[in-house]
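Appendix C reproduces, verbatim, an entry submitted by the partner laboratory led by Prof. M.T., so that reviewers can inspect both the input and the predicted structure.
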Amino acid sequence: MTEPRLTRYASGGGCACKIPPGELDALVAALAPATTVPPGTRPGTPLPVDPPGELLVGLDGGGDDAAVVRLDAERALVTTADFFTPVVDDPYDWGRIAAANALSDVYAMGGTPWAAVNLLAWPRETLPMELAAEVLRGGRDVAHAAGCQVSGGHSVTAPEPTYGMSVVGLVHPDRMLRLDAAVPGTPLTLTKPLGTGVLNARHKATGTVFPEAVAVMTTLNRDASLAAVAAGVRAGTDVTGFGLLGHAYKLARASGVTVAIEAAAVPLLADARTAVADGFVSGGSRRNLEWVAPHVEFGALPEAGRLLLADAQTSGGLLLAGEIPGHPVIGEVLPRGTAPVVVRG
């Protein structure tokens, strides 16, 4: 019997199903500590009472990939969570992709994942639990390959299948990667090719499998993160649901710089241009472009090129303000100019 196509049980897929970035900005801004309480609202506690550790990276950092709390002079705790609806039909591959994506938030901070728990929502009346077991097995295998312990988690019944992980790791407080540390004069490096968003959209619509895209999404960002930290890089993020342009804008905004991207230097998956030309662009990618366009100077870049740079990635690579061997330099960090992001070519 042919297994059901998981992507048909989800309205979105992968990181393309994120809340649109503009709406998320407004939502997070509502959580920022306020000096006064507006009339008619319930006062809250802006800071924790007697916290055991200092918050090194939180909401004030501009939207980093994880929260970081200092334990002592040489150790800080990195904590994150990430989950999404099916991005591919194969349950084992979906689990692998979701785990690699969740672990990436720790790598994007320059840290090492230590332990993870599963987060699973499952339509148990419409999809067999055997498929859920395959999803969990895929997640476990990737986490174990990363040297990360996996034990337990939480599961609920829900209309759409959803899976991910909550991950805890460690990082040296003085060797973190963060959004607000980019300085002018440094090159800009991207460690994975773009195009998983449009290829996943084509996969959902047609059932066509793209092995190269699956390989990219299941590849850990561990080696790139270690190389970046060893090279002295201190600014970076991973490229996921907001696309390269969205994450570049967040880095530029947090650091008070301009990020210049050479469009011709950005690596792409082999079938990505064809997928865009054939119209396989997710709503999430189009929302990304609409959100970031006012903050980008595109020059003569055509619409297809803009959509690829805004393509909502799942388990994408690291965007680093620095150069590391074996990965392409796609631009540079400049002093703040007329726009936070400039696209050349």
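The chain is about 30% helix and 20% strand. Additional entries are available on request from the coordinating office.
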